[in-house]
Amino acid sequence: MTRPAISRRGVLLGAAAFGVPAALTGCGGPPRGPDGMITLGSNASDAIPRKALRTVVERFAPGRVRINTVDHNTFQENISRYLRGRPEDVFTWFAGYRMRFFAEQGLAVDVSDVWGRFAADYAPALKAASTAADGRQYFVPFTYYPWGVFYRKSLWREKGYQPPATLDELTALARRMKADGLIPIAFADKDGWPAMGTFDILDMRINGYDHHMALMAGRESWTDPKVRQVFDTWRGLLEHHQPAALGRTWQEAAQSLAQKKTGMYLSGMFVAQQIPEADHDDLDLFTFPQIEPRFGTDSLDAPVDGYMISAKARNVEGAKALLTHFAAAPAQDIVTGLDPGTLATSSRASGGGYTVLQRRAAELVSKASHIAQFLDRDTRPDFASTVIVPAFQRFVGKPSEIDPLLRDIEAQKVNIFR
Questions:
Q1: What is the DSSP string of 143-186?
Q2: Of 86, 87, 97, 107, which sits 20 to 30 A from 295 (CA to CA)?
Q3: pLDDT in tens, 296-327
Q4: Which residue intervals of the chain bear CATH 3.40.190.10?
């Protein structure tokens, strides 16, 4: 299945028996009635995004939306069973492949009529990322955030560091940081997904965006020398990463950056949530440096988050009204003002409350020709969760065993994508 890329211009313009944790079974909301209650299943479990969502929802209709917040990873791992059980009316989810996967299984409501209310405020690429194979929209974008290499400006000024333009310069910088008593690159993969960001950027830098998307779609082989080169490069960089990554969360890695124990961190913009507010202006980022000159730095991950309506929703009209609220610029201005790790998707959002970092992040995205949605959003969810997560953790634990690892990934991929 072809997944339309989000272009640079597009972004700018724009239950127990089934093993599901009790928190994610969902109450399904009350029957329709005079109270007009709407239920929302949310994966915004960290403190800042959770507060931001509640604030935006209260501006919509105080007391009319009941939010069921679930740990982010738990939500993702159980989403299929959740949608087939007793889900809330509205649920947080992701653009692109992940949206289409559930739309095509009949687990989501067509919201094309909702799009008719605000389509002019969104770039064509964002609408394409919200559209399933049947040409209908099932997703409403809310925010997005780029991945980049984050660092503390004050530390870099003190040490005289400069953002590297090439892989060789990055390696030289890492060695210099070690000599200065720093761990060069913060790293964590206890939750399984953070390492995907490293693989994504290395594959796009070495083999280009088109190869990466084809690999995610199951059309390229994981045993191809091109993929082997990605892992060889990754293995060479691991010596500069924080050790014992499999026992560390992304939040803990981000805190090491905040404490100036590590020099830089390849992460999503949500890293800002772990930096004290007083230090937000001291946080900066650069795009991962060039490896293969013909691809330069033309691609990056910038996932789009938003909302869908479950096929079992009891208050569909109320849910559509809530999605219309989320799509409006004022709601997005509220959330991006409260959550420094996000950017607005509506072209009408003012961005007036953006921090220095948010403005820098928007600038970084503006310079990219290709935007990927992140590995576990650009491929089948079953492949990402049952194959890639354990495979990448295996690699991080034993980076010298590449060939048997790639053979295992390819064998499982063939079974899943057939």
A1: EE--EEEEEEHHHHHHHT----SBHHHHHHHHHHHHHTT-EEEE
A2: 97
A3: 999 999 999 999 999 999 999 999 999 999 99
A4: 8-145+302-353, 147-301+380-417
